[in-house]
Design goal:
The protein is 47% helix and 13% strand. It has 244 residues and is an alpha/beta fold. The protein has 2 domains: 64 residues; 164 residues, 3-Layer(aba) Sandwich (Rossmann fold). The protein has a 4-stranded parallel beta sheet, covered by helices on one side. A 3-stranded antiparallel beta sheet has the order 3-5-4. Strand 1, helix 6 and strand 2 form a beta-alpha-beta unit. Helix 1 runs parallel beside helix 3, helix 3 crosses helix 4 and helix 5 packs across helix 8. The longest helix has 15 residues.
């Protein structure tokens, strides 16, 4: 089997030269594992991959998407969301308007978690919640708000943990108010009143150019910075801090 490590730097260089994507400051081990999987699945030599990257824009986009992390879930780590609800949201709830940015939002489930939380504290109206990600495909999924049900069965469990006290004391909220389960088609569908509120934009957090105007009351970045090396992490922290 070919040792793909030999031309890995060439692959990253071609991507950087032919696009706006720059993986030079990403952590190599995790980046390498994703590239190795692409190479093995394609059954191509590294030279063939490089040639295709140099000659096909579609293939370059495919490789970039496969090399980025796209995993999240609704109310991931319920304890974190309880902390946000009990400590963070009250600190900003008296603002005339609320602006929140989820950087590296993947398929948007974190954005919908926030919108549900804001609705439960009667601050959905007057709030702007943005989700950005490098991967256009996961943003398309986020905008549709359709997710595999069997894959995401834990979402309902997470929801019930975050709102356990409300459900016990008042009998609501019910998860059915926010999403529909279509067991026949095996999907969970976020209800339209939430998908209409979510604002999804393509953005590379590694890009130091200013992307947003204005400041935010809350910024969450839970899926990206761990894959950057310390140089890019510092840039990322600076970019996020400047938006407050």
């Amino acid at each position: 089997m070919e040792d793909y490590t030999r031309n890995f730097n060439v692959v990253l260089s071609v991507i950087q030269q032919r696009s706006s994507y720059d993986f030079s400051n990403y952590r190599r081990p995790s980046l390498w594992r994703r590239y190795e999987k692409i190479a093995e699945n394609e059954g191509m030599t590294s030279n063939e991959i490089i040639y295709k990257l140099e000659t096909s824009d579609e293939y370059l986009e495919y490789v970039v998407k496969e090399m980025t992390i796209t995993t999240t879930e609704l109310f991931r780590d319920p304890e974190t969301w309880l902390m946000i609800r009990n400590n963070v949201i009250p600190a900003i709830s008296n603002n005339d308007s609320i602006r929140i940015w989820h950087a590296g939002c993947s398929n948007g489930l974190e954005v919908y978690s926030m919108l549900i939380l804001l609705n439960e504290v009667n601050r959905l109206e007057g709030s702007l919640v943005y989700g950005t990600d490098l991967n256009r495909d996961v943003l398309d999924e986020a905008e549709m708000g359709h997710y595999g049900y069997r894959f995401s069965a834990s979402y309902i469990e997470n929801f019930n943990k975050v709102f356990a006290r409300d459900i016990l004391e008042k009998g609501y909220p019910k998860c059915e108010h926010y999403f529909l389960v279509d067991s026949i088609r095996d999907i969970i569908k976020i209800r339209p009143f939430l998908t209409r509120k979510a604002l999804f934009l393509q953005h590379d957090l590694a890009d130091t150019q200013e992307f947003f105007s204005g400041s935010f009351d809350l910024i969450l970045c839970r899926n990206v910075l761990i894959y950057f090396n310390h140089i890019l992490q510092k840039k990322g922290h600076s970019n996020l801090y400047e938006r407050f």
